[in-house]
Design goal:
The chain is α/β, with parallel strands linked by helices. The chain has five helices and three strands.
Length: 107
């Protein structure tokens, strides 16, 4: 799942995304293969985060160190985090804010 995405033309900016509710990384892998550079991946389920780490650790600029920094966190915690503050998008706009919302059922 660590395949490199297709290369963008040299004069075009990269497609960028932040993914909320990333789960184990299925959508992230697809977007990566389509050429998106993820600025952040956010997931609250600790088991899914461990799988997510394995899925992204070999991506360009998502080395094993950055992958290991992924942690289980709520989107509200992410918005207050150093990771969010450190995105340093400047004048750059995200190409995509991806979110998959799962319904929680009580038993």
């Amino acid at each position: 799942m660590g395949a490199s995405p297709p290369h963008s033309p040299q004069d075009s900016p990269p497609l960028t995304s932040v993914e909320i509710c990333a789960g184990a990384g299925g959508q992230a892998v697809g977007l990566h293969k389509a050429g998106f550079e993820h600025r952040a991946l956010v997931e609250w389920d600790s088991h899914a985060v461990e799988t997510l780490k394995a899925n992204v650790r070999n991506w360009p600029w998502w080395d094993s160190g950055k992958a290991q920094e992924l942690k289980s966190q709520d989107v509200n915690d992410f918005l207050e985090s150093d990771q969010h503050k450190g995105l340093e998008l400047g004048n750059e706009r995200l190409s995509l804010l991806a979110a998959v919302f799962r319904a929680l059922r009580s038993r």
